[in-house]
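pinned: reference chain
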Amino acid sequence: MSRTRTSSGAGELLVELRRDSGVPLHQQLESGIRTRIRSGLLRADTVMPSTRALAQDLGLSRGVVVEAYQQLVAEGYLVSRGGGYTQVSDVAVVEATSAPQPVDGPPRIDFRYSRPDVSQFPRAAWLRSVRRVLNETPYRSLAYIDGRGTIELRTALADYLNRVRGTAARPENMLICNGFAQGSRLLLQVLAAQGYRRLAAEDPSDNDLRDVARAAGLDVVGVPVLKTGIDVAALARSGADVVLVTAAHQFPTGAVASAETRAALVAWGGLVIEDDYDAEYRYDREPVGAVQGLAPDRVAYAGTASKTLAPGLRLGWLILPSWLVEPMAVAKLMDDRGSPVFDQLAFADFVARGEFDRHLRRMRPRYRTLRDTLVERLAVRLPDFEPVGVSAGLHVLAWLPPDLDEEALRAAALLRGLGVYGLAPYWIAGSGPSGLVFGYGSLSRRDVVEGIELLAEAVAAIRNR
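pinned: its structure tokens
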């Protein structure tokens, strides 16, 4: 056994090598350094010994040390810096215990989807809008308002959505609601009252709205999702008279509806509900325009500030076909007498002054880095997982290899303080291929790296049983 102590820039490195073990020396060196990083003995930004110095101290060829360093750089444990030195990465993870114990309370790292980074909420810009509204709003605006919402916000959003999302919105056809949850609930209730009977939903898709549809008295039928979006031929055979789609970035597969799919949707004949929930976050190119712009009287468009600003704002909006505006305004007034005026006016000012655009431009690079890190770490640590979907949004779906069970993997991850979420609840037909839906919006890059490392440990534990 060769046991060598060598100094580094911020402490000492102790590496043990067994030349008679049959394990290649570069792998032993990788393992030794990796273990010390993950256990916290080598801290972030520690300068590592040069390859030449470490090779000399360990009695190895320099090529063995170079190969070990290169592998650890590829895995994200080390970072090569200009000037020829190497440091411990600032996203180096802490090793989980070998015998994990049940975790009380929420997971320490949680890949739950649909959570934006609320710590980045633009407080200063929002405060300026709030102050402006408080100083300038006439008293008459504080009385009961139109069921559609304030004209200021409807006008600001119509201008913004027509410019950015390619909609054909008019202020008189817009309705402000308390998030997508209220807007979709009221819309389904109004449609049921008008004689609509069957809702088609993408399969897989978010299960919350399906429960709302059933509560409103609608049948729900699943329609498969292809790489080009919802299968419109299957939709035509479904007997549905209304369909809910996430055309710009399908949840959870990440598919984008092709031009052919979008054209077929508006030619289908029923009402299309377009949930445009995270279309502002496309990282590899400009996002496709909204389907609503192709057929304003056949598409009800839904948007929300929950993913772009903060879910706690409870601000959402609908662009409605003209024949739905009045019954929806009545339903909104009956439900809660209208959304808070000051919130609407502050958001109208925020949008009209370009603050919304600036916030989104600031957040896109951050979310793209998180997504890229997630996909890269899956490729390195769990190469038999298969991420799918375009570079967009706040989540990634990864198909699981056939030997892994979603529930077993969820439980093993939770023992390590990690929250991961399977695809099973989103299948309408009751079953389908297994996968995990990774939400990353509220995490740091270090959280993502550590989370995938913990997941790799959970996978290894399952496979070693």
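why pinned: Residues 355-381 form the longest helix (27 residues). Residues 1-12, 93-99 have pLDDT under 50 and may be disordered.
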